[in-house]
C-alpha cells in the first residue's frame, strides 16, 4: 500500500468541507489519523484553533514562514475541498507538488495526476476513516499553532496600524461570536489573526465582492451569538442603509469601520494616485443618528451604545471594553487608520497575483 511509504502526513481543509456539511466527518478523520491540520483562509474557524492538531493557516506566501516550511516539506498532502481562487491561495502562490497531493472533492477525487470521476469525498472520507491502517497512526506530538509575535513599527506607537489591530482585536471578541469580514483589508487582516474558540468567520474570499458584509451581518444575527462586522469605508458606502435595519430589528451588532480614506486594496493594485479610488469622506460614526436613533418611531428600536471615532490605541481599547460590557446594545466604532497601511497578507497576495499574471503573459508571448 503506497501510503505506508510516506513519513509525514498533512491534511489541508479548504472550503467545500463546510459547504457540504462535512466538518463532522472531517473531524472524525483528523482524530482517527492524528494528522497535523492546516486550514486555508476560506476555512478559517472551521476547526477550533486550539485543537492539538491544528497548525496554522496556509495561503502560499501569505502564510507564516514556519507554516510554509512544514507544508512544503510534507511527504504527502491530503487536500479536502480544494478551492484554488486568487485570495485563497495568496495570489496563486501555492507551490504544492502534484506528485505528492491527493485532492478530495464532491464530484471527483484526484490522486497525484489521476482523476477519478464520481468518487465523492462525502462517501470516500468516512470509508477512509474506518479503514485507515492502525499501523501508520502516530500520535501527533508536534508543536501546536503559535501566532508569531507582532513587530510594531516604532514610528507608530499610538496610531492604530494593521499589525496592532489584528493582534489586539481577538481580546475583545467573545467565544462563539460571528465575525463578518468585508472584502479588502478586513478580509486579509483575519488570515493570521488568533481565532477565539467557536468563532464563525464569514468572508467573501471566492468572488471578492465588496459591500456585502453589513447586510450579511443581519442574516447572521443569532440571539445567542454576538455579531462583529469588520468593514472598510468604501464598502460601507455601498450598503450603509442596512444600519437602519439593524436599528429597526433591535440588534446588538458591533460595527467596526476601518476609515483609511478610500479603496486601499485598489490603491495597492492600481497605484495610490488613481482618482477613482478616492471617496467622499463621511462622518461614519454618526450613522445611528442619521438613520433615526433618538427619533420617535412606530416600534421599539435597538439600544445604542458606543458610537464614535477612535484614533489611538488607547481610545480603541477603551471603546472595545465598553462593547464587551454592554452586550445588549448596538455599537459603531469608526477606526481611523493610515491611508496606505495594509495587512502583510494583502500586500503579499497582490505581489503574488502580479507575478502570476506576468508569468501567464510571458507564456503566451
TrEMBL record:
Q: InterPro entries, alphabetically?
A: DHS-like_NAD/FAD-binding_dom (IPR029035), PDC/IPDC-like (IPR012110), THDP-binding (IPR029061), Thiamin_PyroP_enz_cen_dom (IPR012000), TPP_enzyme_TPP-bd (IPR011766), TPP_PDC_IPDC (IPR047214)
Report domain Thiamine pyrophosphate enzyme central positions: 17-112
GO molecular-function terms, A-Z: magnesium ion binding; pyruvate decarboxylase activity; thiamine pyrophosphate binding
> Catalytic activity, per the record?
2-hydroxyoctadecanoyl-CoA = heptadecanal + formyl-CoA
Give the signal peptide range: 1-19
State if Chloroplast is listed as a keyword.
Answer: no
The cofactors required by this protein are: thiamine diphosphate
The Thiamine pyrophosphate enzyme TPP-binding domain covers 194-335
| Gene Ontology BP, a term | aromatic amino acid family catabolic process to alcohol via Ehrlich pathway
Alphabetical UniProt keywords: Decarboxylase, Lyase, Magnesium, Metal-binding, Signal, Thiamine pyrophosphate
Q: Identify one Gene Ontology CC term for this UniProt entry.
A: cytosol
Do you know which Pfam families this protein is assigned to? TPP_enzyme_C, TPP_enzyme_M
What family is this? Belongs to the TPP enzyme family.
What protein name is recorded for this chain? Answer: Pyruvate decarboxylase
Q: Which organism is it from?
A: Rotaria socialis
